[in-house]
Design a protein that fits this description.
Layout (H helix, E strand, L loop, with lengths): L9 H11 L6 E5 L12 E2 L9 E2 L3 E4 L7 E7 L13 E5 L11 E4 L3 E4 L2 E4 L9 E2 L10 E3 L7 H9 L4 E5 L4 E6 L3 E2 L10 E2 L2 H11 L5 E6 L3 H14 L2 E5 L10 H7 L3 E5 L3 E2 L5 E5 L2 E6 L3 H19 L9 E5 L4 E2 L5 E9 L2 E4 L9 H5 L2 E5 L5 E2 L4 E6 L4
Parallel strand pairs: 5-6, 13-16, 13-17, 14-15, 17-21, 19-24
Antiparallel strand pairs: 1-12, 2-11, 3-10, 4-6, 4-7, 5-9, 8-9, 18-20, 20-21, 22-28, 23-27, 24-25, 24-26, 26-28
C-alpha cells in the first residue's frame, strides 16, 4: 500500500468486496431451538396437515345443523381429547378452543350466543355450515412448502416449524469474526488514563453491533503499534477467523504498521482507499478463505464502513438473498450544506415522511450513531441539498 494509491469509487469497492472474497458458504444442521436469525439453506416441507383435524376456533357447542330449537348436551370435548362421538340431530357437545370437532358436527356456536338450562342448549343466533371450525390443513397441507430456502428465521418462523413437528433445520453457517484493535494510545475502560491516552471503543462498538445482528462467534484482540506484534497478531487472527476487521493503523504514518504487516503475511490487496467520506483509508484484501478489512481508526468512520462494506459480505456468506441494507428515496427535512467534494455517508434520522441529517458528522464522533436509524448518501461534488429534495437513504438494521 503506497502513499500514492489511487482512490476507487464506492460502487467499485462494494462490487469487489462481494465478488473477490473467497469466503465459503457452509451448511449446518442445527436444532430448531438454536436456529434464530439463521438463514434456511433448503425448503422445509410439511409432513402433516395443520391443523391435523377439524378444530374448534371457539369455546362453545358443536352440533349438526337441523331445524331443532334445542339440543341435548351429551358430553364435552376439550383440547387434547380423542373423542369423536356421533351426534344426532338433537344432540350437541360442549367444546373448547383447539379441540377436535366431531365428524358428524358441521358447526360450532360460541358459548356467548346460546342459552343453557341444565343439559338443554338453545342457539340464540342463525347457524351457518362450518362456522367456527378450522378445516383440516387450512394453515398448511401435507407436502406443501412451509418455509422457503433463504428465509431468515425469526421467532414466529420457529414457532410455525415447531407446529409441524420440525426439530432440526439446515442453515447457512454464520461467519466467525475477529476484531483487531491497534494503537499505543488505547486503554481499556476502567483503567486510569495518562496524558495522551484514550479509552478503546472501536472493538467494543463493533462487537456489540455484531451481537445485535446475530453474529456471536466474535472476539476482540488489541495490539500496540509494534510491527512484529502487529504481524503476529494479524497472522493468528487470519488463521482463526472467516472475517478479520482491523481498526486503526491502516494509514501511512510512521507508526501505522497494519499495511506492512498484512503484506508481509501474504494478504492479497484487493483495494486500498475509497473516494468517500468518512472512511477514505479503507482496505480490503484476502488470504486463503479469510476476508480482511482494514477499517479507519475513527469510530464513526469505522462503523460507516462496516455497514456499507462488511455487513453485505456477512449477509452473502450466510446465504441471505438481500445483502445490502435497504435503500429508499426520502425528502430532506431541512437544507443541508455539504463540506468537501467526495461522496458522503451522513448519519441521519428518518422521521415519518422525511429524513434529517444529524449533527456531529465528524468521523471521530460516534454519539450521533446512537440516534441514527439511517445513513444519507450524497454523491460527490454535491454542494447543497434543499429542503424537500429526495435523497438516497440507507436504512440501518433494526436488529
Amino acid at each position: 500500500m503506497e502513499k500514492g494509491s489511487t482512490l476507487i469509487s464506492i460502487e467499485e469497492a462494494q462490487n469487489l468486496v462481494l465478488t473477490c472474497s473467497s469466503l465459503a458458504t457452509i451448511l449446518l444442521e442445527v436444532p430448531l431451538t438454536d436456529a434464530l436469525d439463521f438463514v434456511l439453506a433448503n425448503d422445509v416441507i410439511s409432513e402433516i396437515d395443520i391443523p391435523p383435524f377439524r378444530q374448534s376456533a371457539m369455546d362453545g357447542y358443536a352440533l349438526k345443523i337441523s331445524s331443532e330449537k334445542t339440543y341435548t348436551v351429551i358430553g364435552e370435548i376439550k383440547a387434547g381429547d380423542h373423542a369423536n362421538p356421533p351426534l344426532k340431530n338433537t344432540e350437541t357437545v360442549r367444546i373448547f378452543t383447539g379441540a377436535p370437532v366431531p365428524d358428524t358436527a358441521d358447526a360450532v356456536i360460541m358459548q356467548e350466543r346460546v342459552a343453557v338450562d341444565g343439559t338443554r342448549m338453545s342457539p340464540q343466533m342463525p347457524l351457518v355450515s362450518e362456522m367456527n371450525i378450522r378445516p383440516r390443513g387450512s394453515q398448511i397441507k401435507r407436502g406443501a412448502t412451509a418455509l422457503e430456502k433463504g428465509t431468515v428465521l425469526k421467532g414466529a418462523h420457529i414457532g410455525f416449524l415447531a407446529s409441524i413437528g420440525v426439530t432440526t433445520v439446515t442453515v447457512y453457517k454464520k461467519p466467525s469474526i475477529g476484531i483487531v484493535v491497534t494503537g499505543n494510545e488505547l486503554k481499556a475502560p476502567g483503567t486510569p488514563l495518562e496524558y495522551g491516552e484514550i479509552y478503546e471503543s472501536n472493538g467494543t462498538m463493533l462487537s456489540a453491533v455484531l451481537r445485535e445482528l446475530g453474529y456471536l462467534d466474535t472476539a476482540i484482540t488489541t495490539v500496540i503499534d509494534d510491527y512484529e506484534e502487529t504481524k503476529n497478531t494479524l497472522a493468528a487472527a487470519i488463521k482463526k477467523y472467516d472475517v478479520v476487521m482491523v481498526t486503526g493503523g491502516i494509514s501511512v504514518g510512521d507508526y501505522d504498521f497494519v499495511g506492512k504487516a498484512l503484506k508481509a503475511i501474504g494478504v492479497a490487496e484487493i483495494f486500498y482507499k475509497v473516494k468517500q467520506k468518512p472512511g477514505k483509508p479503507l482496505f480490503f484484501g484476502k488470504k486463503d478463505s479469510t476476508a480482511v478489512f482494514g477499517l479507519p481508526g475513527n469510530p464513526a468512520a469505522a462503523l460507516s464502513c462496516f455497514y456499507i462494506y462488511v455487513y453485505p459480505l456477512l449477509k452473502k456468506t450466510e446465504g441471505a438473498t438481500q445483502t445490502q441494507l435497504l435503500r429508499i428515496e426520502m425528502p430532506m427535512l431541512e437544507d443541508y450544506n455539504v463540506r468537501g467534494d467526495r461522496a458522503q455517508f451522513l448519519k441521519a434520522y428518518v422521521n415519518g415522511a422525511h429524513v434529517q441529517i444529524l449533527g456531529g458528522q465528524s468521523s471521530a464522533m460516534v454519539r450521533a450513531f446512537g440516534d441514527a436509524n439511517a445513513l444519507v448518501f450524497l454523491p460527490e461534488n454535491t454542494t447543497i441539498v434543499k429542503k424537500g429534495t429526495p435523497v438516497k437513504t440507507i436504512l440501518l438494521p433494526t436488529k
